[in-house]
Write a structure and sequence with these properties.
Blueprint lengths: L14 E9 L2 E2 L2 H14 L7 H14 L4 E9 L2 E8 L9 E3 L11 E2 L2 H12 L4 E5 L5 E4 L6 E3 L2 E3 L2
Parallel strand pairs: 5-7
Antiparallel strand pairs: 1-2, 1-3, 1-6, 3-4, 7-8, 9-10
Length: 160
């Protein structure tokens, strides 16, 4: 079955997604990502694919597209699911961030379409930055336009 994708690589539909870093074909923290996807699918009444079927497709795509460092993206929507495994280049330079001037009401789920987040990212890049930091209505740092933020606090990595 051919799936029509938007300009950002997401199905032209709405649903949830997980983006998972892979190293030498092994997904990082797959169980944690799958648990979050399952919780989101349940909360949003999306049909979750059977675990064995999903596992088979993940194994197949990682074999078909072996990458030293990759980005595995799982999209789940009412009509089914879509997997991609693409090269990922880690940045080795410090990133330049700006602060997004508007409050962003975050979703507890990673949902698509994701266009509005790419528009926020593009706005930051048009100003010469790599990304921008977002705040919620309590003026707390939540994430960047398209990524999680990690802080090292007293020897422990935490994310808002």
């Amino acid at each position: 079955m051919t799936i029509e994708l938007d300009g950002y690589g997401f199905p032209k539909s709405s649903g949830i997604f997980e983006t998972i870093k892979t190293l030498n074909g092994a997904p990082i923290a797959l169980a944690r990502h799958m648990r979050r996807a399952l919780n989101s699918a349940l909360a949003l009444s999306l049909p979750m694919p059977a675990e064995e079927e999903l596992r088979k497709h993940i194994i197949d795509i990682l074999r078909e597209r072996p990458l030293e460092i990759g980005r595995l993206r799982l999209c789940i929507y009412a009509e089914g699911f879509h997997l991609t495994h693409d090269p990922y280049t880690e940045l080795e330079r410090p990133l330049r961030f700006t602060f997004y001037p508007e409050t962003v009401v975050g979703e507890p789920h990673k949902i698509f379409p994701y266009n509005y987040r790419f528009e926020i990212l593009q706005s930051a890049q048009n100003q010469g930055y790599d990304d921008c930091i977002l705040f919620n209505s309590a003026n707390e740092v939540t994430e960047s336009a398209v990524a999680n933020i990690l802080f090292l606090i007293d020897g422990t990595w935490v994310t808002p």
